Amino acid sequence: MERSQRIKLSILVLGTLMGGLDSTIVILAFPVIAEELHSDLLTTMWVILIYLLIVASLTVQLGRLGDIFGRTRMFNFGFGVFTVSSFFCGISATITTLILFRGVQAVGGALMEANSGAIIADIFPPGSRGAAFGYNSLGWTVGATLGIVLGGVITTFFGWEYIFFINIPIGIVALYLGMRYLKDVTRTPASLDIAGMVLLTAGLSLISYAAVEFAGNGLTTLSMILVPLGLLLILIFAWHELHTRTPMVSFESLSRPILKYSLLAAFFQSLGYLAVTFLITMYLQGIRGLSPLDAAILLTPGYVMGSVLGPYMGRLSDRIGARVVATTGTVVIAVAILIYLAIRVDTSLNVVLLASFVSGIGTSMFYPANNSAIMANAKMEDYGSVSGALRMVQNIGVLGSFVLAITVASAAIPRALAFEVFTGTSQVVGHVAGAFIRGIDAALVVSFLLLILA
Fold it and tell me: In the chain, is it the N or the C terminus that has fewer CB atoms within a 10 Å radius of its CB?
């Protein structure tokens, strides 16, 4: 890899990492944010949900903007929006203001995530993209999982505001480097699918709102109305995509089996794997009584393992093929879930460490190979929209895993207690702890099945 390629790749990885990081970094800061901004926990949930919704809904269209106006231009613009909005998130005095600027921050994150993969495809030839995507997917995956860790650390030692302020110096440096080193290679005439974007955003928003309502108040008339309505809008979105001349993702591209099935695998992988991360965090805090900081530290070695091995696994996929590496990675993660299924109320925490290491190896194999397979089967003029589609399905998976973790655990113990356990403000004991373990086991089995689908 040439020096200029290394510099460009470092900038792209940094942008992807920051986007993934901020999708989850507020989770362990929920209780503090709710207390200091005088909000209830259900409203505070929208600090993370608004980010996931916007990134999931806009990445494809913002990737297409990169095709039209220049991918590096849109990437750098996204970095600027992300950095400025991070400052306003940190100084927010009300929960409404914080949610608003988190939405703006999500637009910046979506611009970075949507265009980074396309820029890599512009810079690197097909034979060496695996390693490059290894680093880039490392950024998103490690960012999303490390966000949980860093959220606990930063909130404990500095305050919730600094989970946003930390983005500012990094963003300024990265924006300078991006404007200096990243140059547009090609632009492609394309059209935006505004109607499709609105339908998808509305459908996901209604389902997410119903999920929050269910997590807080159980099955209500409102949630029973919103879920079917949201699903109906998504079905209308699918019909629209089949009949519009400018679909969000080219159906000619999706006719390629490897691209289509790799996108589906990315969705189920995110849905299954990140649900496991949320569930084990709940176990460590709710059953074992660990603080958010201690729980985060215990899970760190596995994330480090994934970070170190990612680029090497990307090179391996270049040599032996992406399908073998990605499939093996999924199997390894499934093995990690089986190890997690062995934990009980008094199980040694070394079991959690072992499972964390194994899952780190699995993610280091799956994501680089999966990303490489997707972009290798996309046409050059569709790089932006396909890269955006990948981030879209991954972020929808993250959103679904977040809802899955709370919903399944809520079926085992009182709903309010499950939510407090998730945010680290309560611990369960006695027979309730046993019921909670059974709830976590059920959710882990669901995650295992989702990974098998991947």
Answer: N
Token pair listed for 400: 């679904």
- Asked whether residue 423 falls in the same domain as residue 413, the answer is yes
pLDDT of 106 strictly over 80:
yes
pLDDT digits (tens, 9 = 90+) for 182-220: 876 666 666 677 788 788 888 888 887 787 777 667 678
User: CA geometry: angle at 116 spanning 131 and 451, to 5°?
Assistant: 65
Q: Which residues of 435-448 are buried (b: 16+ CB within 10 A; e: fewer)?
A: bbbebbbebbebbb
* Separation CA 387–CA 454 (nearest Å): 19
Angle between helices 129-157 and 95-123 (to 10 degrees): 160
* Strand residues in 230-336 grouped as ranges (E): none
Instruction: For 129-146, give the DSSP string.
Output: HHHHHHHHHHHHHHHHHH
Q: From start to end of 241-399, where are the E strands?
A: none
Hey, what are 262's tokens? Answer: 């790799």
Determine the pLDDT at residue 216.
66
- DSSP helix, strand, coil percent of the chain (3-state; round to 5): 85, 0, 15
In the structure encoding, which two tokens stand for residue 265, read together? 């695998």
Q: Pick left, alpha or beta for residue 184 (phi over 0 → left; psi -120 to 50 → alpha; otherwise beta).
A: beta
Q: What is the pTM of this model?
A: 0.76
pLDDT at 30: 73
Domain CATH number, residue 163: 1.20.1250.20
What's the first-to-final CA gap in the chain, in angstroms?
31
Give Cα separations from 344 to 211, 289, 302, 434 (angstroms): 28, 13, 20, 8
Task: Please name the helix (run of DSSP H) or strand (run of DSSP E) that holds residue 102, with its range, or none.
Answer: helix 95-123
Q: How many structural domains is the chain composed of?
A: 2
Q: Are residues 201 and 186 in the same domain?
A: no
CA-CA distance, 159 to 171, in Å (whole number)?
A: 20
Contact call for residues 55 and 402 (beta carbons, < 8 A): no
**Looking at 205, 224, 245, which one is the last position of a domain?**
245
Same domain, 171 and 23: yes
Domain that holds residue 414: 3-192+246-453
Q: Check whether 442 has a pLDDT greater than 90.
A: no
